[in-house]
């Protein structure tokens, strides 16, 4: 299954572009959720996935990944 290209906003993955097909995605143990926003990136409009605050700390990685 091929997903859509999205851009991550906030958290340690901010600015990363990822391919996904669901309402959430995990980037280096940090959770991102689909938002209603879109952002222009390199001439194309991508859906924004927003960082879920404190998501990394549950994995014991908050300090090393600089999650809020």
Describe the SSE topology:
Blueprint: E1 4-9, E2 17-20, E3 24-27, E4 30-41, E5 44-51, H1 62-65
Parallel strand pairs: 1-5
Antiparallel strand pairs: 1-2, 3-4, 4-5
Provide an overview of this structure.
With 68 residues, the chain is mainly beta. It has one domain. The chain contains one helix and five strands. It has a five-stranded mixed beta sheet, with no helix packed on it. A hairpin with a 2-residue loop joins strand 4 and strand 5. It is globular. The mean pLDDT is 82.
Distance between the termini: 32 Å
Low-confidence segments, given as residue ranges, are none
- Report helical residue fraction: under 10%
SSE order:
EEEEEH
Instruction: Round the mean pLDDT to the nearest integer and report it.
Output: 82
User: How many domain modules?
Assistant: 1
Task: Tell me the major beta sheet.
Answer: 5 strands, mixed
Estimated radius of gyration: 12 Å
Query: What is the overall shape?
Result: globular
Q: Into which percentage range does the β-strand content fall?
A: over 45%
Question: Given the helix and strand composition, which structural class is it?
Answer: mainly beta
Spatial order of strands in the largest sheet: 2-1-5-4-3
Number of strands: 5
Number of helices: 1
Quaternary form: single chain
Describe the structure using short key phrases.
68 residues; mainly beta; 5-stranded mixed beta sheet; 5 strands
Question: What's a quick, concise take on this entry?
Answer:
The chain is mainly beta. The protein has one helix at residues 62-65; strands spanning 4-9, 17-20, 24-27, 30-41, 44-51. It is globular.
């Amino acid at each position: 299954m091929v997903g859509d290209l999205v851009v991550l906003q906030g958290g340690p993955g901010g600015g990363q572009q990822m391919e996904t097909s669901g309402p959430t995605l995990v980037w280096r143990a940090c959770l991102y959720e689909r938002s209603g926003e879109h952002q222009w990136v390199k001439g194309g409009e991508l859906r924004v996935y927003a960082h879920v605050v404190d998501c990394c700390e549950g994995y014991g990685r908050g300090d090393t990944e600089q999650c809020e």
